[in-house]
Write a structure and sequence with these properties.
The chain is α+β, with helices and mostly antiparallel strands. Helix content is 47%, strand content 19%.
């Protein structure tokens, strides 16, 4: 299943393949850390649980 998420800071879209919603959250968490470091280096790190909550709220399951 494909999931998408937009960065709340720059609106860049990220899309990943994941088998479950929990798997999608973990993958977006990893991708989000890389994206933030590259595109938003001056933004302070967010606690992981807060980041996971934000990902769950913002991610969308793509239609098959």
């Amino acid at each position: 299943m494909k999931y998408s998420l937009k960065c709340p800071l720059c609106n860049q879209s990220l899309t990943i393949d994941a088998e479950t919603e929990n798997d999608a959250v973990e993958k977006f968490l990893s991708e989000g850390k890389v994206h933030t470091k590259k595109h938003h280096p001056n933004i302070p790190a967010m606690p992981e649980e807060q980041m996971k909550t934000m990902i769950r709220f913002g991610m969308k399951k793509q239609e098959s």
